[in-house]
Amino acid sequence: MPIPAKKATASPDPEEILRESEQRFRLMSDTAPVMIWMSGTTTLCTYFNKVWLDFTGRTMEQELGNGWAEGVHPDDFERCLTIYTTSFDQRKPFSMEYRIRRYDGVYRWILDNGVPRFTPNGAFAGYIGSGIDITELKEANQRKDEFISMASHELKTPVTSIKTFTQALSYRFQKQGDEECLRILSRMDAQLDKLTKLISDLLDIAKIQTGKLTLREEAFALDELVVEIVDMLQGTTRHQLLLEQRAPVLVFGDQDRIGQVLINLLTNAIMYSPQADKVAICLEKEQGNVVVSVQDFGIGIAEDQIEKIFEQFYQAADPLEKTYPGLGIGLYISSEIIKQHHGRIWVQSKKGAGSTFMFCLPVYEESSRDLD
Ligand code: ADP
Question: Domain total for the chain?
Fold first, then answer.
């Protein structure tokens, strides 16, 4: 049976389509619970949604062009402008936090994400951005930081006292020749050391957050420090710690803090490679820098987690499974220490195929020392 021909319909009016699309955008933009702005091919702003205007209590006319900048907190303005204009010049997305004056005169923290827009034929058309009020989140974060700082200070004193009492008891048991009690006490002391390390990591986090992680800097031989730490840790593990490459090199920095980074990388390498039997360490000079690498042959890290493991409290393994102990703070502290030394820390890894953690520091002086 022949199919009846469809009734011819009038082709849609392009202006009508445009109007409808524009209307849909306005409706979406004005009802979504986010502040939305747009700029054109110059950096000047051409649109703000209703949420933005209600939030700032200003009119579209007041906000257009550079008007919005009047509401930005003076202490945040320069930083914001630099992020905005440099991203704009490179046509790159950006994310920034700043304070903006609300309709009632109170400054609120906004997280603003901007992305470049392009026409269907690829021409740059400006930016579109969205902002959300993160003031409460920031306040909660600050309370969390204050709690960590307070709790770790409160824990430090009793743990230090217990450690002193342990030493006193150990002295007494030694005099009495009580081997059994000495054994128990030594296990108690090892647990106390773990507790002390956790507390000192938490205290470091508090110091980093308040900008009080101070460095006691001096020139020191990094290669000697590496040897010292490798020797020390070799006594605590069945893994073979192989120092495969070593060059004499002086760096300027805080030896204890750099040692802390090395210990963290090596203990992680050992912990996250339970099936392996070795860890390889290298120290090489490269164009005015020294690169230290710690390679393990363990569980590795999934690609989507590589960026995150240097973040505070991030653990790649499911923390609920609790296969591995830890709080996810060692790498965060390490990266802050390396940053303060004008260096860089990074990792190359593949899930199931091991990881190589590396950090580089500027060389202080070419050392002509002979290696021992
Ligand atoms: P943690 O105390 O949990 O080890 P870190 O900050 O040192 O804290 O490490 C963060 C996370 O990075 C770890 O929980 C682990 O999932 C991952 N990680 C660190 N080092 C390695 C490694 N050598 N191999 C595999 N995963 C690692």
Answer: 3
Q: 233 and 187 in one domain?
A: no
Assess contact for 217 and 254: CB atoms under 8 A: yes
d(CA 193, CA 61): 64
Q: What is the rounded CA–CA span in Å between residue 184 and residue 131?
A: 58
Q: Based on the domain organization, do 233 and 273 belong to the same domain?
A: yes
E-assigned strands of the chain? Answer: 35-39, 45-48, 94-101, 107-118, 124-133, 218-221, 240-245, 249-253, 278-286, 289-296, 344-349, 355-362, 365-366
327 is a domain residue: yes
Spacing, Cα 77 to ligand 1 middle (Å): 37
Instruction: Determine the pLDDT at residue 372.
Output: 56
Do residues 247 and 370 touch, judged by C-beta distance below 8 A? no
Could you report the per-residue pLDDT of 27-78, keeping only the tens digit for each? Answer: 888 888 899 999 999 989 999 999 999 999 999 999 999 999 999 999 999 9
Q: Closest ligand 1 atom to the C-alpha of 357?
A: 23
Contact 266, 259 (CB under 8 A): no
Is 370 a residue whose pLDDT tops 80? no
- The per-residue pLDDT for 32 is 83
98 and 176 in a single domain? The answer is no
CA distance linking residue 257 with residue 164, whole number of Å: 25
* Ligand 1 binding pocket includes 335 (Cβ within 6 Å): no
Model-level pTM? 0.76
Distance 346 CA to ligand 1 centre (A): 13
The rounded radius of gyration (Å) of the Cα atoms in the chain is 29
pLDDT tens-digit map of 212-266: 898 999 999 999 999 999 999 999 999 999 999 888 999 999 999 999 999 999 9
Q: Is 272 in the pocket of ligand 1 (CB under 6 A)?
A: yes
Tokens 């930083």 belong to: 79
| Arithmetic mean of pLDDT over the chain | 91
Please identify, among 93, 117, 133, the residue that sits at the C-terminal boundary of a domain: 133
Shared domain check, 63 and 198:
no
Is the pLDDT confidence value at 368 over 70? no
Q: Where are the alpha helices (DSSP H) in 177-252?
A: 179-209, 222-234
